[in-house]
Design a protein that fits this description.
Helix 1 packs across helix 8, helix 4 runs parallel beside helix 6 and helix 8 packs across helix 9. A 7-stranded parallel beta sheet has the order 3-2-1-4-5-6-7, with helices on both faces. The chain has a 5-stranded mixed beta sheet with strand order 10-9-8-11-12. Helix content is 42%, strand content 15%. The longest helix is centred in the N-terminal third of the chain and has 26 residues. It is of the alpha/beta class and 418 residues long.
Length: 418
């Protein structure tokens, strides 16, 4: 891992969303140098599902050697941002570095993203980043270090990154556009850069997205903290860059990346928005199931009796059904499968005892899932996480997302039998 140099001693770093995850990891790395950390986050009371508050983070920061100022900040509220900035300046005398880490995510397509979720992502990701930067700029201009770092991706207009979760992509790219604009606007005064991981990072958010066991395919948040630290060491002339964590750490001489892996040697999930060759990436993803509707419809075989892995999977699922499972789920799932043994299948978890079969269900489906037969079998046997299949474009979901998540939990109970 990247060693600390002490260069951030006495510097004041304002970090949004620093009560847990990546924000807290960056805070703890800087704290080891003796930095002052402003923890600008919403969580003042313990969350039932998410560990950590601004106060527990403050204790960890001070134990690591830094000074902490916990501030209750919802970045959607301009007054709360302004108040926290004023408190930071009063306590520490200024602000040297701003980290825009706070973010909201909903990996849903256009028709399945409620307006409330759209507003949340736009207001936290794009607007929150913009307003927090604006509030800090007058004080950053007085600093010799003067950095703004946004946790946002390189701007990649490959449609594959828009088609499954358009609203989320727009909201994250808004943060990246702030880098593009502000780096030029404040050139020579403030360095403005973006940082993004090459692979999935294990955080509470990733646990919620990927389910139990996903951590083995992730790296620890410390890799982002080390990459951020490397950026903070650079002069103001290092600006307007979209930095990838692994690349900058290789430039720092880091060769052993196993130290960052949750489970060294285990295959890692690549993160969003990164493809070296967009055209090839698009073709690759299309071959994996993220294909246009018209193509998919043509490739689907006509309904007829089938045998093979899909039918065997449904047979095992049927044997696992009972009234308790039906009562707990209360949903009908339809599967549109392309490839060998494909076609339309259903899983009825509303009727007594449950039912499965080939063709459409007798009642309207609550959730329709489209994917290849190979990925379907992998998904039900636990070799492919449904959320990861959805994120990568292998799985398309229409209908009730909450019920889709219920099915993921049900599948995890069936894995030992499949």
């Amino acid at each position: 891992m990247l060693p600390n140099t002490g260069r951030l001693a006495g510097c004041t770093i304002f970090i949004t969303g620093a009560s847990r995850g990546i924000g807290k990891a960056i805070a703890l790395k800087a704290a080891k140098d003796g930095a002052n950390i402003v923890i600008a986050a919403k969580t003042a009371q313990t969350h039932p599902k998410l560990a950590g508050t601004i106060y527990t983070a403050a204790e960890e920061i001070e134990a690591a050697g830094g000074k902490a100022l916990p501030c209750i900040v919802d970045v959607r509220d301009e007054q709360q941002i302004t108040s926290a900035v004023q408190k930071a300046v009063e306590k520490f005398g200024g602000i040297d570095i701003l980290v825009n880490n706070a973010s909201a995510i909903s990996l849903t397509n256009t028709m399945d993203t409620p307006t409330k979720k759209v507003d949340l992502m736009m207001n936290v990701n794009t607007r929150g980043t913009y307003l927090t930067s604006k509030a800090c700029v007058p004080f950053l201009k007085k600093s010799k270090i003067a950095h703004i770092l946004n946790l946002s991706p390189p701007l990649n207009l490959n449609p594959v990154w828009f088609k499954q979760h358009c609203a989320y992509t727009i909201a994250k790219y808004g943060m990246s556009m702030c880098v593009l604009g502000m780096a030029e606007e404040f050139k020579g005064e403030i360095a403005v850069n973006a940082l993004w991981p090459k692979t999935a990072i294990h955080t509470a958010a990733m646990d919620m997205l990927g389910g139990s066991g996903v951590e083995s395919q992730c790296r620890k948040a410390e890799i982002i903290a080390d990459a951020a630290y490397s950026i903070f060491k650079k002069p103001k002339s290092f600006t307007g860059n979209f930095v990838i964590d692994e690349i900058i750490l290789k430039e720092e001489g880091i060769k052993n990346f196993d130290v960052y892996a949750v489970k060294p040697g285990h295959p890692l999930i690549p993160d969003f928005f990164l493809d070296e060759h967009p055209d090839a990436e698009m073709k690759k993803r299309e071959s994996q199931g993220a294909i246009p509707e018209s193509k998919e419809e043509k490739s689907q075989p006509q309904a007829k009796p089938h045998s093979g892995a899909v039918e065997e999977t449904f047979r095992i699922v049927k044997n696992a059904l009972n009234d308790d499972v039906v009562q707990a789920t209360q949903a009908i799932y339809q599967f549109e499968l392309s490839g060998k043994d494909g076609g339309t299948w259903f899983l009825d978890l509303k009727s007594k005892g449950g039912n499965v079969g080939h063709g459409k269900p007798s009642d309207q489906a609550d959730v329709v899932m489209s994917m290849s037969t190979d990925d379907f079998v992998k998904m039900f046997s636990g070799k492919l996480k449904p959320t990861m299949a959805f994120m990568s474009g292998k799985l398309k979901i229409k209908g009730n997302m909450a019920l889709a998540i219920k099915l993921e939990k049900l599948m995890s109970q069936m894995h030992p039998r499949l």
